Amino acid sequence: MAKTNVDNYLDNETRNIYNTKSNNEVLDIKYGLTEDIIRQISKEKNEPDWVLDIRLKALKLFYELSDPDWGPDISYLDINKIATYVKSIDKEKRTWEEVPDEIKDVFDKLGIPESEKEALAGSGAQFDSSTVYHNLTEDLKKSGVIYTSFDEALREYPELVKEYFTKAVPIMDHKYIALHYALFSGGSFVYIPKDTELDRPLQSYFRLNAKGAGQFEHTLIIVDENSKLQFIEGCSAPGYNELNLHAGCVELFVKKNAFLRFSTIENWSKNMLNLNTKKCFVEENGKIEWIMGSFGSKVSMLYPLSVLNGPYASCEFTNISFAGKGQNLDTGLKIIHNAPHTTSVVDSKSISKDGGICTFRSNVLVKPNASKSKLSISCESLMLDSESRSDTIPVDTIQCDDVEFAHEATVGKISDEAIYYLETRGMSELEAKSLIVRGFAEPIAKAFPVEYAVEMNRLIELELEGTIG
Amino acid sequence: MKLNELRLKTTNGFKVNNLDIDIDIQELNTDKLYEVNGIEVSQSIKNSSITSNIGLTYSKYLELTITVDNIYSNPILVNYNFSNDNYLVSKVIINFEKDSKADFIFNYKSADSNKHFNYLVEEINAKEYSTGSITYINNLNNISTNIMSFNDTVLENASITHNLIDIGGSIRIYNSDLNSISYNSQNYFNNMYLGKDNDIIDINYDMKNKGISSINNLKVEGCLKDNSKKVFRGIVDFIEGCTKSTGIENENCILLSDKAISRSVPMLLCHEEDVVGAHGESTGKINEDTLFYLMSRGMSKEESTKLIVLSNFNSIINEIKDETIKEEIIKEIENLV
Question: Interface pTM (ipTM) of the complex?
């Protein structure tokens, strides 16, 4: 029996710009998950047979696999009540002027075209199941950089896509990745050729607008040898009193001596089930940096995996989660050290308030061949009241003696001494608490690009409103 | 059978949600296995099933009840000497009455090279203002099995310290359910283990802060050599209402072999704002700088390694309140390392 009783408070929730709803025309909408629907989606996208085969295999797996027997309860999700495909536009556009006004207005309010002009090397925007806009600067196109929607990449670069698609995240990984592969639509494809450094980031923004809909975008990024890329992923949705679903997938490949910084702010509305999957393979001397902020959603289950496959490969993982009333954010990471001299550094923070639940799961595996590897994991949790929960659940498996591994975690409240000090300097108790929360999050905010740091601070402000801010 | 199930399950891929192992369940055979010095003990063979959260059930067991209502300055020694085909399923109940104080040492040893089996379920009830320490020494031979379940309820201003010195047996399974339930209730759990050959060490400790200003402190120091494998699960759980409480867990594991495997799940669960909670964990080989320093002072690599491992264990071994036993254990560890 589907349970979509999203808490009543959501109706009154003010999420400012993020709550903007578009009355755009929907060209096609499909509910549920059947073979017929899968075939229709594939036909509309004019996909090759091998892609349809993957979709059909994934469909079968989805019905065979069980929900996880750990983590938050998501058994109330009834896929037949989700709009699994919502087409908003016929063909993606190359200029913002071509994008229909109802859709463009939303992205204008989110500041996406403005960011592109000021700070980005390329930008993409997805609205429900459709990519509405994708563009890359001419000089980068000429240097061989590919940045397109995933649908377009399947048409234009089928061999390149086939070489990497499903290779980082296999379709049988778990039930909701099977769902993703059955229904995937939109997303971004990036290929950075050898010896190419992008001085400005690429950004893809995913907006889920339709009530009761699902979004299943697929992002595939390959950073070839000696190259560098910063990629920013933004996600948001307006609030409804029906369940929405996000089951996206990100596959990343960082080649020898390459660097990728992948930044995300997951700012979903609080009626969203966010079951996202992200994995990255890193080769010799390559580096992946994950910078993540998890704010919205009713339930999130998100644990990016980094596989350090080459000597001297490294991973940095910086994360902040903020769970308020009615939210259960079960996030974390997985790291596999599969080569000597590999390094990973993890810094995670979480804030819980008004009965929100933050769970941090870290799964670390150091394989026998990963000698001289170093790992350091630090997680800090801040509880703003006793209705909330903050759990830390690490699993650390060390199969090699010649490693340095350290893991530490702390949980606590805002220090009374710190509040007292700020009060003696003229602040009210509420102002003092608010400042301390921002200070707690500051090291993470510094890791984000400026616009996203501003968005993160704005989200913290929104979360604190009505309680301590 | 599945033993030591984790109270809060996590991803199955890393195989830590339980221990899947075959245990040979046999009939009770105590045959005057134990002797007790310094205190009156009542005993009875029970026919109802023994229960513990470790997951093993036996229909028949030996129950020893020790009531403590005085202050004992000398430790109370309970010696178990296993020989022939001895195996023991026992439940030990210790009641620390109000204001009482006592230290216990339970010393499990093999007198011969036969395979022995020991399964203990402990139940401690610590009344107000009582203080107690219970030290368990597993020094069974290297083909034996040792399974222990520690359970306690600690009341206002009472303090219980568990020490587990774990150096014997090839299969070692431990579990705890320790509850600091009232104002300033205190639970301290110190565990040292040494794994060798193909030893399996499986630990599942659960400590709950329920009372205001209660304290839980879990400290685990280990060393794994050869093909030994260890899973450590530790939960410090702050239950709503336990304001001003402290819960700390620390685990350090030295790996002396590239075939040894260490798995750790140090959980910190928190449903209370005003607490101090922390866990720390480190795993790796012996610090090369320390080793180099000792070797530069004329010690061999082997001697230096022994010294470093022993120094890691030192704080827990020092909790043994019987000098003869302490010396015996240090010698045994030196031989094993």
Answer: 0.87
